[in-house]
Design a protein that fits this description.
The protein has one domain: Glycosyltransferase (Alpha/alpha barrel). Helix content is 53%, strand content 9%. The protein contains 13 helices and nine strands. Strand 8 and strand 9 form a beta hairpin. The N terminus is likely disordered. It binds glycine.
């Protein structure tokens, strides 16, 4: 049945082109700014831009792998070997951090860097680093509550019972580790975490909580709240996007229909709260001229919706999610992409993103996750259009 659905969608995707040609001129601008950004980073770990200029942190954090992933996608789109060399250099620099024990963000850090390096080179050193990172993520599993702990150093009391919706995005590292090792434990942990997130973080209307606090010893839920959203009962736009993307991926990996159902519910809630230009306000329960957008939430949603479309089983659902994905990506390309005419100093690629509103970190600025998921959405659009109509004469190749 699934095979028939895939064949049907493959035929369908060959006949459907919902928004026009691939914007090659924008790729040149993205590539130039990415190379410039790589020079500015100088191997340091970026955080977000302040007045357009990058700020840095000493410690590896969830942003540290994104530059590598951006370079891989641009390399695939342009064939420029220099981009591949730079992507590998970043992956090499991260290999020795695969044993860090203070974050759930192992997927965000190591999927775009060492796992991509392994896919491109087949070299054992990258596979080993990716599996080591997956081991460190698996160690964060709390068997009482059946969830992966988000924050705090392993063994410490620091937020030991906290689960967040964002972790859905890190599960892919566990699915990948089962794929390359044959060890099913990673897969089982990923599924158990996804089931807990489905029942505790997603509300009946498809919206989501950012944080669920468990008693770490008994596994009993004590509180549901936000950390970066507007309020405990509102829905942070990026959290919603992480959820719909993560559940679509969990379905892709497992064929468990419950994950497809919840991915659809989360997607439909998000789509129902998009403004005119399809780029979300930073919290889905806010709106109005004075409310800032979070273009990064749009980028994550665009990429996640394309994945959801690809795993869908009906023409109607495929078209709905694919068309929304493409509409968001084109809107970002049109109005949220860095251009020479924006501020005098503008070192990011995707503008008008919000990293942490309450802490005033990267508010209406750029930050690495925004740049990465935006480029991923563009790369997916490129792959789709290439599959429909191979581009043989682009100036970039
Ligand atoms: N994963 C952290 C964030 O979305 O800000």
């Amino acid at each position: 049945m699934k095979l028939l659905a895939i064949l049907f969608l493959a035929v369908l995707s060959g006949t459907m082109l919902s928004g026009g040609e691939f914007p090659w001129s924008k790729i040149e601008a993205i590539k130039a700014q990415l190379l410039r950004k790589d020079e500015i980073y100088e191997g340091r770990f970026p955080e977000y831009t302040r007045d357009g200029a990058w700020t840095f942190r000493k410690k590896v954090n969830w942003f540290s792998g994104f530059i590598s992933g951006e370079l891989w996608y641009l390399y695939e789109m342009t064939g420029d070997e220099e981009l591949k060399e730079r992507a590998l250099a970043h992956a090499d620099a991260l290999r020795s951090y695969a044993g860090i024990d203070y974050t759930h963000d192992m997927g965000f850090i190591f999927l775009p860097s060492v796992v991509q390096a392994y896919r491109h080179t087949g070299e054992e050193q990258y596979r080993a680093a990716g599996v080591h990172a997956a081991d460190m993520l698996a160690k964060r599993y709390n068997p009482q509550g059946k969830f992966l702990r988000a924050w705090g150093k392993l063994g410490s009391d620091d937020r030991a019972g906290w689960m967040i919706i964002d972790t859905m995005m890190n599960l892919e590292l566990l699915f990948w580790a089962t794929e390359v090792t044959g060890n099913r434990d990673y897969y089982d942990i990923a599924c158990r975490h996804a089931i807990t997130t489905m029942s505790e973080s997603v509300r009946p209307d498809g919206s989501s909580y950012h944080v669920v606090e468990f008693n770490r010893d008994t596994g009993v839920v004590e509180r549901k709240r936000t950390h970066q959203g507007f309020s405990d009962e509102s829905t942070r736009a990026r959290g919603q996007a992480w959820g719909l993307y993560g559940f679509a991926n969990a379905y892709r990996r497992t064929d468990d229909e419950r994950f497809l159902t919840v991915a659809r519910k989360m997607a439909d809630y998000m789509i129902g709260h998009l403004p005119e230009d399809s780029v979300p306000y930073w919290d889905l329960n806010l709106s109005g001229e004075d409310v800032l957008r979070d273009a990064s939430a749009g980028a994550v949603a665009a990429s996640g919706l394309m994945l959801l479309a690809e795993v869908e089983q009906t023409k109607e659902d495929y078209e709905k999610y694919m068309a929304t994905s493409e509409r968001i990506t084109r809107s970002l390309l049109q109005n949220y992409l860095y251009t020479e005419s924006t501020r005098s100093k503008e070192e990011g690629i995707l503008l008008h993103t919000i990293y942490h509103y309450h802490n005033k970190w990267g508010v209406d600025e750029s930050y690495p996750a925004g740049d990465y998921f935006f480029i991923e959405a563009v790369w997916k659009l490129w792959k789709k259009l290439e599959a429909e109509n191979p581009i043989t004469d682009s100036p970039q190749r």
